Amino acid sequence: MLTAIVTVETTENQQDLIINRPTSGLSLQGRISVPGDKSISHRALMFGAIAQGETQIQGLLLGEDPRSTASCFRALGAEISELNTELVQVKGIGLGQLQEPVDVLNAGNSGTTIRLMLGLLASHPERFFAVTGDSSLRSRPMSRVVKPLQQMGAAIWGRQESTLAPLAIQGQNLNPIHYNSPIASAQVKSCILLAGLMTEGKTTVTEPALSRDHSERMLKAFGAELSVDPETNSVTISGPAQLHGQKVIVPGDISSAAFWLVAGAIVPGSELLIENVGVNPTRTGILEALAMMGANIQLENERTVAGEPVADLRVRSSSLNSCTIAGDLIPRMIDEIPILAVAAVFAQGTTVIRDAAELRVKESDRITTMATQLNRMGASVTELPDGLEITGGTSLTGTDVDSYTDHRITMSLAIAALNATGTTTIHGAEAAAISYPNFIPTLKQLCSQS
Ligand code: S3P
After folding, report:
1. Contact 142, 114 (CB under 8 A)
2. Which of 312, 335, 402, 406 is catalytic?
3. pTM for the complete prediction?
4. Does any ligand 1 atom lie closer than 6 A to the CB of residue 255?
5. Domains of the chain listed by start with CATH number
6. 335 is catalytic
7. From atom 11 of ligand 1, which residue's Cα is the shortest distance away?
């Protein structure tokens, strides 16, 4: 069998990932594991910081995003040990005890860090906080959390009528609300629930479709009084709450596994076993979408670990058909749509993705970035206002493409390159470290084994 040559060139502050595929014979084989779930890692650090007693975290994601959360919460007074995958200890300072930091809190590239943290900061009376992030985060909408927090009585100021970071927050005693969120967003839901932790009374969030429920599961495990109404997609938290430190075991991130699921499906002759992947039903839309396309994916060794469902995922290559994805499925696979677009390029027929306008306000405008970069490689992708239309079956040719410093775009394009003839160069590939620091070494390992 032939190997694909994967190299990295570092120039000043930027990395180029260069993938040179052999003309034929590449297949991916083996058993791999993916890093810890990003959403669960953020929450374990944050909830540990505001709980009483010690929280122990096993399997934390060592990506840039959780590092941003850890540094913000250290600045807010929590003692967090050095980050590693074996064991991170968080000495909680107790609810309502976050300290006024001496400097601006920097959430880096991480929407989850800034939005969830805002709920906590806004509900800490008599303390003043300033929060910011990198250029991508400073262009992402904050009104989705600022508005409901202001309805609770929060005092928040920022650029463009408090819709963009940097933001300044004067903590207040807040009032409980019932918030009908216009978007299905776990970041919005979690922000309000966290503000509700410190707020006397019942705070409820209703969302139009169910988004990931890691906050609900983990807040309950930490001792919060929280109820869920699945009929109306509503969650209610009773404040003031008391959280107690827990042991958290972070499963592998299905959003990272998705790259290998698609790689295994589209590279002929491949078989990959991805071990220890979180398969929380609010995150498994990608499995359903790939099944609709005819992918051969099996869940093995299904189990529950620390309150989260986990399985090993086996993928074998197969021919794929197009599919249509829209509606309630979208929030359950929002981060996997870029890699699903890659699968669609190699499927027969036209795949239509709708109801996914949220992609326009992620780390990059993922509708435009995926359409333009895949088309540079020879794909047939049309942008829709709220999604993509992808006609599969065209062959891709390696060329220069840009990650727009978006981690999921980098990794999606790298998987597309495995099925493109010639050499693909992805500029800005250092972005992969946001959620998957070992992505390039794992890609190299799989390509050199084949
Ligand atoms: C996340 C929620 C999602 C997702 C993000 C992580 C979370 O964002 O895109 O990567 O951890 O709550 P939205 O909730 O805004 O859709």
Report:
1. yes
2. 335
3. 0.98
4. no
5. 5-36+251-449 (3.65.10.10), 38-249 (3.65.10.10)
6. yes
7. 39
